[in-house]
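Thread: 5'-deoxyadenosine complex, take 2
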Amino acid sequence: MEQEQLSERPGAAPTSEIGTATKKVFVKTYGCQMNVYDSQRMTDALAADGYVGTEAIEEADLVLLNTCHIREKAAEKVYSELGRIRGLKAERARNGLETIIGVAGCVAQAEGQEIMRREGAVDLVIGPQTYHKLPEALRRVRGGAKVVETDYAIEDKFEHLPQPRRAQIAGRGVTAFLTVQEGCDKFCTFCVVPYTRGSEVSRPVAQIVAEARRLAENGVREITLLGQNVNAWHGLGPDGAEWGLGRLLFALAEIPGLARLRYTTSHPRDMDDELIAAHRDLPALMPYLHLPVQSGSDRILKAMNRRHTAEDYLRLIERIRAARPDIAMSGDFIVGFPGESESDFEATMELVRKVRYAQAYSFKYSPRPGTPGAEMDDHVAESVKDERLQRLQTLLFEQQREFLSGLVGSGMDVLIEKPGRKPGQRVGRSPWLHPVIVDETAGEIGDIVSVRIINAGQGSLFADQA
Ligand code: 5AD
Ligand code: SF4
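Output below.
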């Protein structure tokens, strides 16, 4: 899936100054970066329909929750949030104001009608494949209907969603996401994504290049290509040949103004030679790779249907490191998959010791209804999952600290992104995604400047001008 760095990342929709509308929309985003991207595109579609974004939920005429279904807690949080919003809707109704409540994202896709049964205040349920139908669905809601849109549309939603408007792009900073691929055909046995996001679909080359150009023309310096299985992306190039992600990255690196490229998230089986060559040959491709492995035990990898061994993964990383020696690795891990013994878990710890991760995400296995894992025997006790997670996270945290402290004293290029919290400071981004605090004299927002790291905090760095 590798989709997500799934710490919950709720955030309001970007406030937009476009349009003359008085209607306001509040969007809260859970889960992965693809949801962040989708929330922006929904906001764009709504702007064309007369809505402006707000960060104050109590003044919103439309509240949209863009939800995540990857683990149990994520869905439960949505229901408790909906309970709170129901109160808000009642409060606004007392003041004569109408509020439409919509649920989008993977919980919407997975639960459909059930959401309205559990939470009567919800007016609209809309799955990720039908966001281009949002304005029309809202018109039906305003006409008094309760609407559930969860069919997989035959048409390409991206072709029907409006392009982000220029001023909107410009207001969104110097980094951007760009979805190139959606869905997954891998069917890892723990994962709900193939059911919520559907089967793998790649966006066409011309559409991606046009969107990337547009972003660059509006000041975006760094683009992260998104896909649940981003390195399975493929498409017909203008040269008539079938392109893979590596070839696409070579083409995007030519776009004037675009200085940095990233992609997430990848599956080890789809790391082909051309993609590894892109890491070797493209300075714009940042030396940071999120490559989930989930487990270090071959027995568990097999039960997870990952279709690779621990050794395959280690050998692959060796090849990638040979191509790009300063590459930093990130990964995802699941502890307590059904049948995981102490020695299986120890194999995961051993793999982590061998790889040395700069960053990683680790989770307790959570059975998802409808996935094969949920039906397996031998579920691991919660207390054992807790204990293993603790041990794994302690090790991963140590490696993360080591990586950070290893950067102190070194020089690096930093993309200046935004003003800092303290006056006189700016925040930049390292090639490995760390926030880097620099003096405002270091450069303007959008500049890439050379700095020297003088100190490391918890996850962030402090720099001097080099
Ligand atoms: N339980 C726990 N973690 C999961 N992930 C996906 N499905 C589950 C599940 N059922 C994790 C994987 C994946 C990341 C996005 O979330 O590690 O790579
Ligand atoms: Fe990733 Fe596997 Fe889920 Fe596909 S099924 S999204 S490869 S974890």
